[in-house]
Amino acid sequence: MESTLDDLSRDGLITLDRKGTVVVANRAADRLLADGAPIVGRPFAPLIRPLLDPHAPALYDPCALLDGEGMRQGAVTLVIRGRRRPFRYRLAPVGQGRWGLALEPWSDGEGEPDLPVPAATLAAALESVYEAVVITDVDGYIRYVNPAFENVTGYRKEEVVGQTPRILKSDMHGSTLYEELWRTIKGGETWRGDLINRRKDGSVYYDHASISPVRDKTGAIVSFISIKQNITEKKLTEQALTEQREQLRMITDHLPALITYVDRHERYQFVNRAYEQWVGRPAEKIVGRTLAEILDPAIYAELGGRLRAALKGERVSFERETQLDGRWQVLNVAYIPHRDSTGAVRGVFTLATDITERKERERELSWSHRLLDAISAAQSQFIVDADTHVVFSRLLETLLSLTGSAHGFIGQVVEDPPHEPQMKIHAVIGFHGAGAESAPATDVESIALALLDDLFGAVLESGEPVIVNATPGAAGEGKPESFLGIPIVKGGRVLGEIGIANRPGGYHEGLVKALAPFIGACANVFEAMRLQEARREVEEALIKSQDSLAKAQWIAHVGNWDWNITSDELTWSDEMYRIFDLDPTGSPGNFESFITHIHPADLTRVRRAITAAINETGSYQLDHRIVRPDGRERIVIDQGEVFYDTGGRAVRMVGTLSDITVRKTLENELREQTEKLQELDSFKNRLMSIVSHDLRSPLTSNIGLLTLLTRPGKEPMTERQTTIVQTVVRSLQHQLKLVENLLELSRVYRGNIQIEQEPLPVNELFEASVAMLSQVAAEKEVQLVIVPAGEGRLLFADRHRMIQVINNLLTNAIKFSRPGETIELRSELTKGGTVDLLIVDHGIGIAADRMEKLFDLSYSTTTLGTGGEKGTGLGLSICQELTELNGGVLSIVSTEGKGTTVRLAFPVCESATVEGGSAPSQSSEM
Hints:
Low-confidence stretches: 1-8, 108-117, 433-452, 912-926
Strand content: 25-35%
């Protein structure tokens, strides 16, 4: 041991505190730095600086020289008493903010340094340091330990000298670590690392060890010195912190909030999983970076000022909307300063909690209050001056403000015979270029407001809300990016429409439900306007003259009454006196006076209804008779409503009484006339049926008899006789066709036609009809051409009736075609979901003045064909009726001199195909 210390005593050994003051130094250090004068207690930098070469390591600043390293060693040249001498240096932290520096002289070829230091001095230096020091020989046997080692391990010096450090082994490291350790130090390098060792009492502790080889004059390794810093407390603290971090991570990751911690440099130190998801990056790519590097510039610009206020010590709270988990949420954000023991702000905790549901409730409540306030104000305004433009303008302004919409209108449906219903715009904001922005409120605007008619029309036509949320830029020029149209409905009738457009984020069904009170208020105003308008019209008519007033009262036959139940006083309007034929200057008196005018047979029923209204229902309405003073009876409809005081006692009843005698009389007369018309219609149908049947039989017989005259084998007739017979037969056939058409119409109008509907291939219908009429077409030299339909093209109809319709239409086409012309039969599938059958000829066409009356039986449209053929004038009407009975629509387009196209449109039959069979047929008697 003494030999080892003697070898080491030539090294200058120095310990410095954190201020750079020498706290421990051996004799060699005194000789090197101060020519033998003690240097303990003196600043180290002024002692070493004069001795250093300008390019030498900065030994005077251990902290900067180590720069985070556990140990630094190397060569340095010192100028000692004017002579340059080489040294090896080793610099390492020795705990408690101190550094240890060893300066080892070595040969420079000019002799060796002679710095003998007593071993006792060196031992005293080693035993004074805080860290445990262990010196072993090259085989690893312990030769020296200092008191710090004994304090840490619990072993006394005499117990370990001669042993190997294996006695401290905890078996918590693998063999690889120790193999690497020995390979390093035997290779002449310093090994540094953390070891888990075991004390004498069996407890575990942690060392941060620095083990370096010690060489003799020749450079051979003669021993190893290990400086061990006890880091148990640090390790346990780190483990506790790690566990706390894991627990904190587990807790914060499951909290429905964004949680972060940033230091005073705005650098992230912690984020939870919710924050990772919001930012879109994992924690390892966030922690260590600044807010400005992670956040979007716009968000950082918004939040940066508030964060800096928190870094100054201010607790900051605010609300902001953000998108989290794919949906928009409202967050309550709190920046909480973190202060150290001195009160200085070291960082800021961020806690952002989801308050979307609460804000929604607050918004709904605010919405409801504002909506009710607007409705109340509008209704009050209407009551005060009934200026609809002002009322609806205020309502619309509130609606746009509540929904965040850019454009809007409120319109009322008005009838404008003979035109289609239009909308009267009472208020409009926005919708530039549509013609309504500057339109007076009293003008009727067909909100076919050019660019938006399809949206508005869809709402009015369906009576249902329409929501359109287009992709920005995809709606087209002039079209709204988003639109909500809501019909204003009351009593099942569409009174108007509210339209709003361009709300950020679009519209949804929930908004429609939220606006129900608003829609109801508009409907009430419309209804009040209607009643007001009706009253105004009546009042204006009454004001013209007393005569007009009396006449209007006589026409209306409506009076009102007011009965004070408490005082039994009854007040009548003037019309009440007229209905009862009493003197208006008199008084109806009380309830019993009124009862005396009720017809005796109805008296009990009236008393019972009024009593039930007072005690139970609160209102009544019934028809009854009254008796005038001259004994004449009148029929009235009487209705009343009861009012109660706060105690629930009936105190008043008001009502109306209308004279419906004339109406009842007219109803009875109308009933009698209806019964007579029904009898006449039944007689007409019977007469038509009888005439048709009675005419059909003799006509058929006469045609048969005349045909016998021309049969082969009979006595030949003269040419004149043959012509006469043929003319008579043609005339009788025409009459028979007319009778059959009349009979067919009779069946249609009486609803006696049996319809057997089934899926019918279009090609088969065309082929059946062409087969029947091919001879007629050939005689006239007209060609019939079928354009084949697609495979499986079907319509759902009655086969017999459809062939009858196509035969009639094809006969007409042949009749009005010229020899050599072609008639086409083809079908089309339309975008409207119909299959259309077309019969196209290129004949003489139909004059424009006859087109509108083709199906009018009261107008004769019969025209001779190109070959002089006659028609009955009933064929097209029958075709139209049979087509409609089968669910189709018949239309005709014709140009005089160029031809005619007849179109039969039916819904496409999708329930069956030719190969797969047909759907079950449906039978109905029309």
